[in-house]
Write a structure and sequence with these properties.
About 30% of the residues lie in helices and about 25% in strands. With about 425 residues, it is of the alpha+beta class. The protein folds into two domains: about 260 residues, FAD/NAD(P)-binding domain (3-Layer(bba) Sandwich), CATH 3.50.50.60; about 150 residues, no CATH class. Strand 9 and strand 10 form a beta hairpin. The N and C termini lie close together (about 10 Å).
């Protein structure tokens, strides 16, 4: 690539400096170390005023870096086999080692999530930014990329900040989740212009769900309990379930369980408008056991029995949903009342009316199909000298560090491959 003398020159330009983009910058810089005498500049451009916003808010401000056990089954994607091939190239052990080498030690919590021992997301972001600088990469922001145009065997990358020419570009612009962080879907426009497609549907994933205004659960804001949420078809067929904490809010439900199942619910409703969610509020007990215990209560009231197993307000609400008097004893409980109470506890149909959208979603469902990328290098099959990584691809994982693991893995592969491909590329003039 000869280069335009009037343009700033770089070897690799990374569009987006979130988790995947920073990882790509670090590893592109490290892989290009032997080219430093040839001015092998690595530049990451991000449109956000505050760099790394998603990292800083993740895990309640503690940053859930990864999970101790990860497989392709933890992800929704156009090809789970493809996801597996990427995860094998950068497993959890390498993530732990990578951050340890940066001085960030991770601890495993009971949920299997791995957090920095400092319990501060800033620790993670600062380590990544330092590692990028140490690798010789430049991080610029706010520097929104408006266009990436093929030119002279490479690309010209432009924005209000100016323009830079480079033989290699890595798109790590994210999806549409949490748009205030900078990932507002603009990356899709960039990749489409370079010959890629984007799935027909792009929608929020890991997003809180809204309940009908008349749902009594909306009066229980702040109450949380373990629950099994089950997705069923209109015909009642069980499709999948997630068992985790469910948090009642003023608008509906949130927490790990609802957020994990949210994208599957939305996807199912697209094809089957009658698809719905059912909550089991005592997944560890079992309906038959509960039935037997209610029958055995005798002169004891049902309310204390349920309050011993659930938060008081949730227990009382479920009794109200079943339309059973709170002071009803086991001996007084009629068959139809017992059936209604068991239904409310184990088969509570949730009146979902929607979700809170990309503004409150943690990640994006949909994106560039994995078939359009060489997964050993994240190299674009649509355009030479282009690589893609992170959330812009059609992959979204469960809550708990799975999406960060995808970002670390794909960012590493893209960064190394982009820099190593420069071995035979003439230095910019």
């Amino acid at each position: 690539m000869t280069g335009d003398a009037n343009l700033e020159q770089a070897y690799v330009v990374i569009v987006g400096a979130g988790a995947a983009g920073l990882m790509a910058a670090i590893w592109a810089g490290r892989a290009a170390e032997g080219l430093t005498e040839r001015n092998a500049r690595i530049v990451a451009l991000d449109g956000a005023n505050k760099i790394g916003a998603k990292i800083l808010v993740a895990g309640g401000g503690r940053c859930n870096v990864t999970h101790h056990a990860i497989s392709e089954r933890d992800y929704a994607a156009s090809s789970r086999n493809a996801v597996r091939s990427v995860l094998r190239r950068w497993p959890v052990e390498r993530t732990v080692e990578f951050f340890r080498d940066l001085g960030v030690h991770l601890k495993r919590e009971d949920t299997g999530k791995l957090f920095p021992t400092t319990d501060r997301a800033r620790t993670v972001l600062d380590a990544l930014l330092t590692a990028a600088r140490d690798a010789g990469a430049e991080i610029r922001h706010p520097a929104r990329v408006e266009t990436v145009t093929p030119a002279d065997g490479g690309f010209v990358i432009r924005g209000d900040w100016g323009a830079v020419q480079a033989p290699r570009v890595i798109i790590a612009a994210g999806g549409k989740a949490l748009p205030r962080s900078g990932s507002d879907g603009h990356g899709y426009k960039l990749v489409r212009a370079l010959g890629h497609t984007v799935t027909e549907r792009v929608f929020p994933s890991l997003v809180p769900l809204i309940l009908d205004a008349d749902s009594p659960l909306r009066a229980l804001a702040g109450i949380a309990a373990p629950a099994r949420l089950e997705l069923r078809s209109a015909a009642g067929k069980r499709l999948l379930s997630f068992e985790n904490a469910t948090l009642c809010t003023h608008f509906g439900i949130s927490g790990p369980g609802p957020m994990d199942i949210s994208r599957y619910y939305t996807d199912a409703r697209h094809a089957d408008p009658g698809a719905h969610l059912v909550a089991n509020w005592l997944p560890g007990l079992g309906r038959e056991t509960a039935d037997a215990e209610l029958r055995a209560l005798g002169r004891k009231a049902i309310a204390p029995w349920l309050r011993a197993r659930l938060p008081d307000r949730l227990a009382d609400t479920l009794i109200e949903i079943a339309r059973v008097p709170h002071d009803r004893t086991g001996a007084e409980l009629r068959k139809d009342e017992r059936r209604a109470l068991l239904q409310a506890i184990f088969e509570h149909r949730l009146p979902i009316t929607g979700d809170r959208g990309f503004t409150h979603a943690e990640t994006t469902a949909g994106g560039v199909p994995l078939a359009e990328v060489d997964l050993s290098t994240m190299h674009s099959r649509a355009h030479p000298n282009l690589h893609l990584c992170g959330e812009i691809l059609d992959v979204d994982g469960r809550i708990g560090g799975f999406n960060f693991q995808w970002a670390w893995a794909t960012g590493h592969l893209a960064g190394v491959a982009a820099a190593q491909s420069l071995e035979s590329t003439p230095a910019p003039s």
